[in-house]
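Quick question about two entries, pasted in order.
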Amino acid sequence: MNMTSQRSRGGRWRAVASGLLLASAAAFSPLHAQAPAAAQAPATGQVPATVAAPASVGTLDAARVDAFLDGLVPYLMAQGDLAGAVVTVVENGKVVTERGFGFSDVEKRTPVDPRTTLFRPGSISKLFVWTSVMQLVEQGKLDLDADINTYLDIKVPAKGEPVTLRQIMTHTSGLEERMRYLIVLGPDHPANRDNYLKEWVPNQINRPGTVPAYSNYATGIASYIVERVSGQRFEDYAEQHILQPLGMQYASFEQKLPAELLPHAAKGYRLGSGKSYPAEKNTAPGVGGLYASGSAMARFMMATLNHGELDGQRIMRAETNAQMLTPQAAVLPHLPRMTLGWMASDTGGYDTRSHGGTMLFFYSWLWMIPERNIGVFVSTNSVGRDAAGSALRAQVWERFVENFLPTLPVQAAGPGVDADTARQHAAALAKVDWHSTRRSDSSYLRLLSLFSPVRVHPQKDGSITVDGQKGLNGQLLRWREVSPWLWQQEHGRSLLEVKVVDGRPVYFSGGPFASVFGFEPMPGWRSPSWLRPALIVALGLLVLSAVLRIGGVFVRRYYRVAAPAEGRGLRRLQTLSITVVLGSVIAWLAYVKSMSAPGGISSYSNGPLILMQALSWLAVLAAVALVWVALRKPASWPRLRRFGAWVVALAGVIVAFVAITQRLVSTGLQL
């Protein structure tokens, strides 16, 4: 799993909450992809014996690459219940291999054709937005460091400091996540770009340029700027200035595919053995709406590796291409950085540029090692069992580098620290509940931080583990401190670094995704360390009270004893209030579960959400009523009942506190 999967510690609510994020438009981003250095292996933890032996230095041999892929990919697909996959490999301006596996349409048994079958690369689409932006920069029509509001007819952000295109391209805009209306099911869904970009402009939760926080919304704004400056829809601009010049015949940003391409679109599946789903529509196509075959993506990789030119067609100047691949300013000096739109990382010691994409049913990744002039693209058309689509793309890349590139030695990033320092620093990190810089803070999705916080765990041997960070074997990675506040993966190259202010850790990140998000301390007043157990206890007490009340009714009926007359109205108010509080919790559980269905969180209607917010307000009022009952309780009530009145009142207050602090009572419709 990656750093944001956060499913290592269970609980029904956490599973539902994690499902929400996976089902959201945010799933376009690499944050829901398994990092090459942090992917899960199949359940067996083994790879087939047919995988090729390590290659010698030199040009890739197509036959050996094919043997490697034919041994690995079908095995992973069978283990993970995946419908289809495509892999393309390029080197030195030529296609080494294009391989299709499984089916693009399981019911019709249509095999994947790497040349023509259209997959959904998801957030890899963003690379085409950044390419478009840089083309317009070349023409002097855009300035990477100007306030983006210069180019817009809306104000972004709604408050805070101005944002620049450079910050958007490096995912340091500081904007919170925006999910509603981005990805919906069916090309004819009425949601459109203006719904997504203009109905609600996200707030700034961090000052621009300070910390990375991957943003679909900011990318959507960049694609809109391309439209406004060029005078063309983004779909048309990309077609005219990128897809056609590069000969990407089987590729399109049209969400309603042209008739000649429609038969080639792969169907999407949760499980290869299950049903197919309607096509995913991206209302801001540049964010994640690309359709492309493996062959088309090979041409894009070759053009990028060849300094912006392919077969005599140049899409950007060589110096501009180089600028795009150059790492930008570091947030933490030892960790991978963003380039202008590409994620920089280390794979087996090789300086890698990549971008991933995860849609509702498609998992994809594109990697390049410019120094070797090698590129690999992998995509699946199904989620698979335990997110096997994500595991497959990570396995293919990691195994490919191991098998076909010279092994480079692992070097320590520092001399190490003494045992006392390691323990002190690990304890300082463990005291904190961390949440991602990439999050939604203005809606009920804040619940994700409550039920899925990230914790750092000191180990007896002096190392640490971090929730969600796992290796190819499915086990949590161990990190050892190699210099003050810098950890290195045990037996690996990945680094984890902490920013410290006044002796306190205030930010950390690590691994290949350090360029696009990190973790900040959660405020103590809503820390899961106390709030989550308090909520569980409160709900347990309210349920117990409800059960005792129901049981009391039957007991009195059995013995034919009337309830005491004094305080009867208060008891009834108390019972009604408990019922309202518990009813609102049950309603929210049902609502969140419905939102976790494919496309649910992006295309929800206003009515149900307004109803849920109204129920939350009723629960808050019911908590106030419980306190009022506890204050007004008759002296004639037995001591246990008077004490119980305060117990259920406190439980109600805790539930109300959660409703308010987690935005369940928000009167807005943003998401």
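Here is the second entry:
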Amino acid sequence: MKNKLIKALKIVGTGVLAVTAIAGGLAFYTVRKSWPQETGTIKISGLKDKVEVFRDKWGVPHIYASNQHDLFMTQGYIHAQDRFWQMDFWRHIGSGRLAEMFGKSQLDTDKFLRTLGWARVAQQELAQLDPNTKAILQAYADGVNAYLKDRQDGAISLEYTILKQLNPKYQPEPWQPLHSLTWVKVMALDLSTSFDNEIQNAIFSKSLTSSQLNDLFLPYPKKHPLIVPNPNNANSFDKTALVNPDAPAVDSALQPIAKQLNTLNGLLGKTRNGIGSNSWVISGKRSATGKPILANDPHLGIQMPSIWYQVGLHCTAKTSDCPYKVNGFSFAGMPGVVIGHNDRIAWGFTNVDPDVADLYIEKINPNNPNQYEVNGKWVDMKLVKENIQIAGGDSLSLTVRYTRHGPILSDTYKDLENFNQKTSINLPQNYAIALRWTALEPGNSFRAIFNINRVQNWNEFRNTAREFDVPSQNLIYADIDGNIGYQMPGKIPIRASGNGRYPVPGWTDNYEWKGYLPFSQLPFAFNPPQGYIVTANNAVVGQNYPYSIAQDWDYGFRAKRIVEMIESQKAPISVTYFQQMQGDNKNLNAENLVPILLKIPLNDDRLKRVRNIWVGWDFQDNMDLAAPALFAAFWKHLLADTFHDDLPQDYWPDGEDNWFEIVGRLVRQPNSRWWDNKTTPEIENRDRIFQQAFTKAVDELERTLGKDPTKWRWGNLHTATFRNATLGKSGIAPIEALFNRGPFPTSGGGSIVNATGWDASKSFEVVWLPSMRTIVDLSNLQNTLSIHPPGQSGHAFHPNYDNAIELWRKTQYYPMLWERSAVEANSKAHLTLTPK
């Protein structure tokens, strides 16, 4: 669904727009006039005292304020200086108001987003916040608005100069606390696959048999690591909390597909789009410093500017009234730091991706489309009116229908159109499909993220994590006293029946949620005996855990390699070794398959010579090597020749780690039916398909990279292009050239620790990547390192717009400055803000 959303957000331009933009010159002054003032003094209404902002050569600001209000007001001001276009765009996503900016082309997207109703949920959350958190949000908003005051659009960001050609009347509105709260909702969608999985699972039921699904979709590998193999609370599980664990899986109306859907495991969800993350922490008994070291690199879609904004927030005197001394990565649009460290603890996130959304099939009254059945009775839906403004002054009225489960998703979600024709589910004659999702219920995730900034120890950390509702994250922890820990937070539904893999009947109470797992029952670990904790979207717990968190974990290849690197290091582990780990390009899939192909006879001397490239290869997917280019091409054709004849085109293999496991098992069955291409008269086996795929791979590389295989390079195929999320996808080359940067040769690949993912059903181009990397040394916070591409600034042509790309792609870092003396010594700009 995320791919469809991204596609919907592309801006449709015209040649006239391009000519107008070029004719206007976009001269040097036009480009520079939106760049922020970084030195000198600025007077701002609303400040209580003087604030100082130091920026290093990478554009990272460190804010020093005497009070909490000024600290977060200045963060809002600085965010707006560097990233307001990004902030404006994301708040329009969160509120379902893209048509206001980009016109009728975004109406379908707005309808879907309004149906989800994030702004309505965020408004409820805002009303429930404590006074201090509200005050911080308001101070942040005041800072954003102080920057916007009296600035013309072109002086805010270059994108507005272009947008004015498309939408002359558009004017950015003031920032509100509500806009910050919708950020968490947008991230929940980006990191969730639950309801998409259900739709896709149901569609798959029409084209694959139960036996085929059993062959393709496999359980989590037993030999791959669990995040918490022995949870600290393992002996305190309250098994009475699990409601009806042996209840029947499906209603009789859905029984024909129950066995098929119960085996479907992640092909079309998380592992299809590849989004994941790495984090790990070691204790002092494994480190060279005698204190913990913590690493984190979240994997998100490639974009420009970065989704992250690095910042230091410092109270000049840390007191109970101003308790912040924190450094790390924020979101432009939210106060505080999302991932980083303060003066006592460090923390990191990776996605759990639990199953926290269900689709309910509702029976609709044939005489009244706004009534649905509940236990044999017709019940009125709740109707919510939405008015969608469109660029140019038009508007559209939308009625969102709600059942007891949530909004009717089938009214606006394209994947559910004609659903009765796409699936083998026996649907009622008059039906609609409603969504229940934890992200559509008021929660406290913003407050939890924000409060982590000031916690001082493990107990405070866990108590803060208790409020982290959505999206559920693997939280890792370390402190300067030497402790390490892990906590999984989040609302995890307890279902009366079923396992959440497929749409269920909504007209009875048989499939209702009976509440959420108590926080005390969620897995955690504190100072585990192995001296490390590794999270890489792999399974959190094993089969002995009494509750269902998720059916479709990442298959754990990245986690396996990280654990392997930690355990194989006999010498004490240093920060330098952590850098090598984050840049590790070892391809465990190649390590499994290449030895098989090296033994298969080839009748062509040309192919034999090329195959010798693999002899002696250490399976590192380095950008300057030929071997990974050859393997990637072979892998692409192996998947196509094995599975394209059996699977619908929309679901052809993307090559992610679930396919590592599927093919890894199939290669042990040389005569499996999957090797046979049913479109040909002969019967193929494994060796024949391997030979065929290898031949096609060599042919492709000779066409694209030349006849001399010694000159092939993985980085010539596997490139990263950083595209502006809006105008950088306009389809108008001159405009795209203003905002996009690339292509850049890149190492790594999907399900590799250096996780630069590509889609084997499309191209070798990077589609998601480590969106930032950080390594925190708890023995000396001044030794902390970081990097995030493409750069800190959101202003095209600014020196900090793309200056981090080279460091990032070579897995190099810059220091994450901490002590004020070091900040001032490395400062390239000093700005003073004073009350007006």
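Reply: The first helix runs from residue 2 to 8. The CA atoms of residues 267 and 658 lie 7 Å apart. Hope that helps.
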